[in-house]
């Protein structure tokens, strides 16, 4: 898993980095793969601009490291979900890099947006009124993003709300720099909601003529140029998640997750394994206990269904996922292949993030954002 330092024969080899030698599992994050994915998306949507969504600590991969790498690659617009995420990101990305906060201002937080040069996404009449009042109080126009709800019923102004705002000149004190909306079904290319939401967005845009527009997150980028408008907002695709379920993934994998063997044992046929004795060895088996569990975000739903891999060989999980450990049936490997301290792949060349998520009964987004900070982390590139 890492370079092995030369050592006298009686001292077992150890990974060169002591924190990796101590770790039960190692999460490797390839920042160069993230920037390559961003460049590939940017080239696909040009002349539209490619932003980057780094909410939820860049989907669990480290907003600081990811944002620095993307900024160095040329990304100039970033989205986060919460005000505090925006404030933290502003310390890493100085103005004029744009940072937009998707949830907009909670009542009373408007001044924090101006203090930290953050763009609020105004989603409701209350948020528009609050931010316009703040602009009036400061006596200057304030930049803001306006979101329309075109059919997801989550964030954004309805068409009639936007119509009444425009009729009342209620956006007058604001400099609307972007008009956005979000698709509910973009991962299903032939879903009729995609075209319907696009039409609804075109109708909303007529109320804000000349304002740059944004509709697409990762999946919608692959619906074609009609969906790109002036700016796209990928998150998942940057991190290697497949944008369309069932289609080949055009993006580079970004994460590798390795668990390390703590203990090996020989078990006779019929030996019960793990909490609740939910599994029993069908035949004589060799088992390996690996030092990662649900407290590391390795979902318990992988009990008895997930697998690790070792250089092309599948090693099924047997028994329940524990808080800090899992048990693998490694009988498919020749005896002596694995020793304590050796690594097996949970996410890697034989099993990508989406495949592991499917085994867990979830999607890559949930698995990625749940992979905890408890893993030893190693960043490549950047
Ligand atoms: C999370 C989010 C995105 C990014 O979505 P991905 O599917 O991860 O690309 C874009 N826009 C909005 C409004 C979001 O909430």
Automatic annotation (TrEMBL):
<feature type="active site" description="Proton acceptor; specific for L-alanine">
    <location>
        <position position="275"/>
    </location>
</feature>
<feature type="binding site">
    <location>
        <position position="154"/>
    </location>
    <ligand>
        <name>substrate</name>
    </ligand>
</feature>
<feature type="binding site">
    <location>
        <position position="323"/>
    </location>
    <ligand>
        <name>substrate</name>
    </ligand>
</feature>
<dbReference type="InterPro" id="IPR011079">
    <property type="entry name" value="Ala_racemase_C"/>
</dbReference>
<feature type="modified residue" description="N6-(pyridoxal phosphate)lysine">
    <location>
        <position position="55"/>
    </location>
</feature>
<feature type="domain" description="Alanine racemase C-terminal">
    <location>
        <begin position="254"/>
        <end position="380"/>
    </location>
</feature>
<keyword id="KW-0413">Isomerase</keyword>
<comment type="function">
    <text>Catalyzes the interconversion of L-alanine and D-alanine. May also act on other amino acids.</text>
</comment>
<keyword id="KW-0663">Pyridoxal phosphate</keyword>
<dbReference type="Pfam" id="PF00842">
    <property type="entry name" value="Ala_racemase_C"/>
</dbReference>
<comment type="pathway">
    <text>Amino-acid biosynthesis; D-alanine biosynthesis; D-alanine from L-alanine: step 1/1.</text>
</comment>
<dbReference type="InterPro" id="IPR009006">
    <property type="entry name" value="Ala_racemase/Decarboxylase_C"/>
</dbReference>
<dbReference type="InterPro" id="IPR001608">
    <property type="entry name" value="Ala_racemase_N"/>
</dbReference>
<dbReference type="InterPro" id="IPR000821">
    <property type="entry name" value="Ala_racemase"/>
</dbReference>
<dbReference type="Pfam" id="PF01168">
    <property type="entry name" value="Ala_racemase_N"/>
</dbReference>
<comment type="similarity">
    <text>Belongs to the alanine racemase family.</text>
</comment>
<feature type="active site" description="Proton acceptor; specific for D-alanine">
    <location>
        <position position="55"/>
    </location>
</feature>
<dbReference type="GO" id="GO:0008784">
    <property type="term" value="F:alanine racemase activity"/>
</dbReference>
<protein>
    <recommendedName>
        <fullName>Alanine racemase</fullName>
        <ecNumber>5.1.1.1</ecNumber>
    </recommendedName>
</protein>
<dbReference type="InterPro" id="IPR020622">
    <property type="entry name" value="Ala_racemase_pyridoxalP-BS"/>
</dbReference>
<dbReference type="InterPro" id="IPR029066">
    <property type="entry name" value="PLP-binding_barrel"/>
</dbReference>
């Amino acid at each position: 898993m890492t370079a092995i330092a030369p050592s006298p024969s009686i001292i077992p080899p150890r990974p060169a980095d002591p924190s990796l030698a101590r770790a039960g599992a190692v999460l490797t994050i390839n920042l160069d793969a993230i920037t390559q994915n961003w460049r590939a998306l940017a080239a696909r949507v040009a002349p539209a601009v490619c932003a980057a969504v780094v909410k939820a600590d860049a989907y669990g991969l480290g907003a600081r490291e990811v944002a620095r790498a993307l900024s160095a690659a040329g990304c100039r617009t970033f989205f986060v979900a919460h005000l505090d995420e925006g404030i933290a990101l502003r310390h890493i990305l100085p103005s004029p890099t744009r940072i937009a906060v998707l949830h907009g201002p909670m009542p009373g937080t408007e001044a924090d947006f101006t203090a930290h040069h953050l763009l609020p996404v105004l989603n409701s009449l209350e948020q528009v009124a609050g931010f316009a009042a703040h602009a009036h109080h400061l006596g200057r126009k304030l930049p803001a993003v306006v979101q329309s709800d075109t059919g997801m019923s989550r964030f954004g102004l309805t068409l009639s709300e936007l119509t009444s705002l425009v009729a009342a000149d209620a956006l007058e004190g604001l400099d609307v720099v972007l008009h956005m909306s979000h698709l509910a079904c973009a991962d299903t290319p032939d879903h009729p909601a995609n075209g319907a939401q696009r039409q609804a967005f075109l109708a909303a845009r007529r109320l804000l003529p000349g304002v740059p527009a944004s509709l697409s997150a990762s999946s919608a980028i692959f619906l074609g140029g009609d969906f790109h408008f002036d700016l796209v907002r990928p998150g998942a695709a940057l991190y290697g998640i497949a944008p369309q379920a069932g289609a080949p993934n055009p993006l580079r994998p970004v994460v590798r997750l390795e668990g390390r063997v703590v203990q090996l044992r020989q078990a006779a046929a019929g030996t019960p394994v793990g909490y609740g004795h939910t599994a029993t060895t069908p035949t004589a088996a060799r088992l390996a206990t690996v030092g990662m569990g649900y407290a590391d975000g390795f979902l318990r739903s992988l009990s008895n269904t997930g697998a690790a891999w070792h250089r092309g060989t599948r090693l099924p999980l047997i028994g329940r996922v524990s808080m800090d450990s899992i048990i693998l049936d490694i009988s498919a490997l020749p005896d002596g292949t694995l020793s304590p301290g050796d690594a097996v792949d949970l996410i890697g060349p034989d099993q990508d993030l989406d495949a592991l998520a499917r085994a867990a009964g979830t999607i890559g987004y949930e698995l990625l954002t749940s992979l905890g900070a408890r893993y030893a982390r190693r960043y490549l590139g950047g």
